[in-house]
Amino acid sequence: MALGPDEAGRLADLLKEHGDGLVAQWAELAGANLQGRMSRPELERQTRDLQKGFQQAFAGGARDLTDEEAGELRAQLSELSSNRARQGFSANETAVSVFALKDAVLGVIGDTSDAQTLRDFVAFSAFVDRAALFTFDAYVRVREALIADQAEQLLELSTPVVKLWEGVVAVPLVGTLDSARAQVVMERLLQTLVDTGSPYAIIDITGVPAVDTQVAQHILKTVVAARLMGADCIISGIRPQIAQTIVALGIEFGDIATKASLADALRYVLGQKSYKVVTAKRTER
């Protein structure tokens, strides 16, 4: 239900005339839902800004939230959603803070027995409902973006490339290796090979719970990419269960060196570099 021109004008006058009292009551109602997790001065600042936004939208002739005259109000609602999402409030708490404006205005109006007053309030309620839903949608978009950023950061943290020895780097994989993570692994490994000039790279799959055809393909692509950069790859962490699965699936690693443990892989690489690995003997005292 869109507001009529006269209704918008009367609502603009109402919000302007009862500004201070409306802001105080609105902040109190919104604060009850937030359970003290936001200070009263901050709540009053937010509600005052929004009260002015609604008042200016109505004064400008906005009949619906999608109207050009309500552009500034939409921007304020988006900013509220963004801030609340980053502060850890829920989408429900954010929307309810906007819904509370209806109760605050009803408290200012008081008697709704007059037909015109009732029609104005019904139209105003519909406008506020759309504003609250707009806030909810904006919150969800911001929250999804935050979650995507956090997931990307966790993905990068979960795929470190470490230097084991001069000319030897390792990628210890833990957890499931899907396409997105395989791409991150490949990019980080190749960049490290460029930065360090390492001729050897160990891909350790000790922490990978299971190896299927897809996981094997991801590993092989990473090995091929590293070889194109001039580095030889060794795959370590081939446990008995993993070995049986690889044989059962008919997966071929070709001429890629495979070792049971990271230590075996490092020992192999050092042998390729003509280092002799000697186990130190303990002396009895």
Could you characterize what this model shows?
With 285 residues, the chain is an alpha/beta fold. It is built from ten helices and five strands. β4, α9 and β5 form a beta-alpha-beta unit. It is rod-shaped and about 95 Å long.
The global form is rod-shaped
The strand line-up of the biggest sheet is 1-2-3-4-5
Low-pLDDT stretches: none
Structural class: alpha/beta
Helix content: 55-70%
Helix and strand sequence: HHHHHHEEHEHEHEH
Largest sheet: 5 strands, mixed
Report the strand count. Answer: 5
Beta-strand content bin: 5-15%
Mean pLDDT: 85
Distance between the termini: 93 Å
Gyration radius, in Å: 32 Å
The number of distinct helices, counting runs of at least 4 residues, comes to: 10
Strand and helix layout:
Layout: H1 5-17, H2 19-34, H3 40-59, H4 71-87, H5 91-109, H6 115-157, E1 162-165, E2 168-174, H7 179-196, E3 200-207, H8 213-228, E4 232-236, H9 240-249, E5 257-259, H10 262-272
Parallel strand pairs: 2-3, 3-4, 4-5
Antiparallel strand pairs: 1-2
Helix pairs in contact: 1-3, 1-6, 2-3, 2-5, 3-4, 4-6, 5-6, 7-8
Main attributes?
285 residues, alpha/beta, five-stranded mixed beta sheet, 10 helices
Quick rundown:
This protein has 285 residues and is of the alpha/beta class. It is built from ten helices and five strands.
